[in-house]
From TrEMBL:
<dbReference type="GO" id="GO:0005960">
    <property type="term" value="C:glycine cleavage complex"/>
</dbReference>
<feature type="domain" description="Aminomethyltransferase C-terminal">
    <location>
        <begin position="277"/>
        <end position="355"/>
    </location>
</feature>
<dbReference type="Pfam" id="PF01571">
    <property type="entry name" value="GCV_T"/>
</dbReference>
<dbReference type="GO" id="GO:0032259">
    <property type="term" value="P:methylation"/>
</dbReference>
<dbReference type="Pfam" id="PF08669">
    <property type="entry name" value="GCV_T_C"/>
</dbReference>
<dbReference type="GO" id="GO:0019464">
    <property type="term" value="P:glycine decarboxylation via glycine cleavage system"/>
</dbReference>
<feature type="domain" description="GCVT N-terminal">
    <location>
        <begin position="8"/>
        <end position="257"/>
    </location>
</feature>
<protein>
    <recommendedName>
        <fullName>Aminomethyltransferase</fullName>
        <ecNumber>2.1.2.10</ecNumber>
    </recommendedName>
</protein>
<keyword id="KW-0032">Aminotransferase</keyword>
<comment type="subunit">
    <text>The glycine cleavage system is composed of four proteins: P, T, L and H.</text>
</comment>
<keyword id="KW-0808">Transferase</keyword>
<dbReference type="GO" id="GO:0005829">
    <property type="term" value="C:cytosol"/>
</dbReference>
<dbReference type="InterPro" id="IPR013977">
    <property type="entry name" value="GcvT_C"/>
</dbReference>
<dbReference type="GO" id="GO:0008483">
    <property type="term" value="F:transaminase activity"/>
</dbReference>
<dbReference type="InterPro" id="IPR006223">
    <property type="entry name" value="GcvT"/>
</dbReference>
<comment type="similarity">
    <text>Belongs to the GcvT family.</text>
</comment>
<dbReference type="InterPro" id="IPR027266">
    <property type="entry name" value="TrmE/GcvT-like"/>
</dbReference>
Length: 358
């Protein structure tokens, strides 16, 4: 089965990107190298092709009210121009996907993960009455521009005043003459925008941003950046069998404000009983890198699992996310991670590992 290609595929090849199969798409994993791309985003500005992500437009009467039945976050606080990061839940309170909801007034835009696009679409169509779903996943491009200089770089090629768009807000504007959806959101821990545009406008926008100094970045740097910022990766850190209370996303659950949503009873029961495990941040020493699925050991027994791990390019030491029993989740607790044939100590630390200066 052939892989899907984004509107920026040819340009990525011209930029000598190393490509990989990601969720059925042929995507750039790196251009100049993960460390260089990572540093560009932390210190200057980088751009990512994220056109593989799912892009849905929901229309109909009372779209947000209908959508409220599927998410635990209070959507009443949304208004046109604002956005909400949240999760879709199954009846057990497990996370079907994490996504961003953009309120556009007469319609709602959803950006979902590439690997779950078909699953999410099916779920939404099954549970949303009197709502029409338009799937723009393969007709539109999505470019993320991230870093301390992201806003000033993008401002050079758009007619809209970006300074008035606050974090988790969005607006439409012209970018090089192309009507574009501009959202001040991202997945790196830095300031920046995500630009959604019809496919025929993507190449010109990417090239212009590159000419203004933006470094092309791949999925490799995107992963190290998001991990430093302790942002969950669906399918690794959270999934259908983890609840937002366990996954460090309890701030998305508004039981006192939302009386009815799929999974509410399960979350209310779990909150009353208390969770038995939690996703925590770990810091290790030296070159001891805890990778995905490495076991956490206590008294010669596995008691937890590492979900994500890397040598932090910014901090210079290994960091990881892991599920551990709640009694070991306190900051400062030392646990053991099995790395190949040995166990090494890891300390539970406060998340995020890295936070951009404001």
């Amino acid at each position: 089965m052939s892989l899907l290609r984004t509107p920026l595929y040819d340009l990525c090849i011209q930029n000598k990107a190393r490509m990989t199969d990601f969720a059925g798409w042929e995507m750039p994993v790196q251009f100049s190298g993960i460390k260089q791309e990572h540093a560009a985003v932390r210190n200057q500005v980088g751009i990512f092709d994220i056109s593989h992500m799912g892009k849905f437009i929901l229309t109909g009467d009372h779209v947000l009210r209908s959508l409220q039945q599927l998410v635990p976050s209070d959507l009443d606080k949304l208004s046109p121009g604002k956005a909400q990061y949240t999760v879709l839940l199954n009846p057990q309170g497990g996370i079907i996907d994490d996504l961003i909801i953009y309120d556009e007034g007469e319609q709602v835009t959803l950006i979902v993960n590439a690997a779950t696009t078909d699953k999410d679409k099916t779920w939404l169509l099954e549970h949303l009455a009197n709502v029409e779903l338009h799937d723009n996943s393969q007709t539109h491009a999505l470019i993320a521009i991230q870093g301390p200089k992201a806003v000033e770089t993008l401002q050079k090629i758009t007619d809209i005043d970006l300074s008035v768009i606050r974090r988790y807000n969005h607006a439409y504007g012209q970018v090089l003459g192309h009507k574009s959806f501009l959202a001040r959101t991202g997945y790196t821990g830095e300031d920046g925008f995500e630009i959604m545009v019809e496919a025929d406008g993507a190449t010109a926008i990417w090239q212009a941003l590159q000419e203004h100094g933006a470094e092309p970045c791949g999925l490799g740097a995107r992963d190290t950046l998001r991990l430093e910022a302790s942002m969950a990766l669906y399918g690794q850190d959270i999934n259908d069998e983890t609840t937002p209370l366990e996954g460090g996303l309890s701030w998305l659950v508004h039981l006192d404000k939302v009386p009815n949503f799929i999974g509410r009873d399960s979350l209310a029961q779990q909150k009353a009983d208390g969770i038995t495990r939690r996703l925590v941040g770990l810091q290790l020493e030296g070159r001891n890198i805890a990778r995905h699925n490495y076991p956490i050991i206590q008294d010669d027994k596995q008691i937890g699992i590492v979900t994500s791990g890397t040598l932090s390019p910014t901090l210079g030491y290994p960091v990881a996310l892991a599920y551990v029993p709640i009694e070991l989740a306190k900051v400062g607790t030392v646990i053991n991670v099995q790395i190949r044939q040995k166990t090494v100590p890891a300390t539970v630390v406060k998340k995020p590992f890295y936070k951009a200066s404001t």
